[in-house]
Amino acid sequence: MSYDTTSETDSNTESRPASETKDESLISTSIDVDGRERAPSAGDPIVETHDLDVYYGDEQAIRSVEMAIPENQVTALIGPSGCGKSTVLRSINRMNDLIDVARVDGAIEFDGKNVYDDDVDPVALRRKIGMVFQQPNPFPKSIYENVAYGLRIQGIDDDVDERVERALERAALLEEVEGRLDESGLDLSGGQQQRLCIARAIAPDPEVILMDEPASALDPIATSKIEDLIADLAEEYTVVIVTHNMQQAARISDKTAVFLTGGELVEFDDTAKIFENPEHDRVEDYITGKFG
Ligand SMILES: Nc1ncnc2c1ncn2[C@@H]1O[C@H](COP(=O)(O)OP(=O)(O)OP(=O)(O)O)[C@@H](O)[C@H]1O
């Protein structure tokens, strides 16, 4: 794995200057600017959780979760408020490491390697597994710099212009911002800001993109653009999305994981099966709005 090493820091916050994050041994030189060499293996598991428990202090938020997330598909995590969806999502790229009281037991394998092994560098891991948050959070910098930041923090300093342009294009934003990349990211609309954040997340060429309710702060038109974009991104990346919106999960995901109160994964299956003919009564009750 190319993310094996040891320095602990966070690639998804502004807290650390790019120069401090570089570990040349981590920096792959094989990233394609113009195209990817991904085998058309949609469906093979890329992330697998094994007996995953997550605790905040003495409180257990996630219980014995077993889940195999398929490559190049969209997997939705749904369930009532507080059931642990975000906790699971943050565990996958070790964002929970940033919460002092959080503790993880069990394993999460990414491409067959446990991301909680001692030799895994969380920063390098987050290059492979990027994240987009609920609130668009562009930096108070130019559109260009917002995307270039995603590269610099990972120590990538070659072909920056091309990589920025490609990320903006992949995030379906380039057409709208072409010719004004030096303008502030904060002057974009909410939906554009969120696509800018998606561009920032995909600029380092991750394999997996985690999205925590990426459209819940947006209006219906902006939401629809993000949904179209997610479907499009899944051709190239694996997308795992937390959503409160069951219609959205049904529209955009291939697989759905239903968590219920207590941090239990009750059912994980093809989205059509979950919404049309779930195995568990509790899931049916949740889907049909009897509770939650
Ligand atoms: N930083 C934290 N410190 C302590 N407890 C936390 C923390 N984050 C989450 N929890 C607790 O863990 C449980 C799961 O929370 P989590 O945010 O993962 O659920 P969720 O399903 O994503 O909820 P929501 O849909 O409301 O965002 C909850 O009981 C929550 O209070």
From TrEMBL:
It comes from the Archaea. It holds the Pfam family ABC_tran. Residues 1-45 are annotated as: Disordered. InterPro entries: AAA+_ATPase (IPR003593), ABC_transporter-like_ATP-bd (IPR003439), ABC_transporter-like_CS (IPR017871), P-loop_NTPase (IPR027417), PstB-like (IPR005670). GO terms for molecular function: ATP binding. Gene3D superfamilies: P-loop containing nucleotide triphosphate hydrolases (3.40.50.300). Keywords: ATP-binding, Cell membrane, Membrane, Nucleotide-binding, Transport. Residues 1-15 have a biased composition (Low complexity). Residues 47-287 form the ABC transporter domain. SMART domains: AAA. PANTHER family: ABC TRANSPORTER I FAMILY MEMBER 17 (PTHR43423). This is Phosphate ABC transporter ATP-binding protein PstB. It comes from Halosolutus amylolyticus. The gene is pstB.
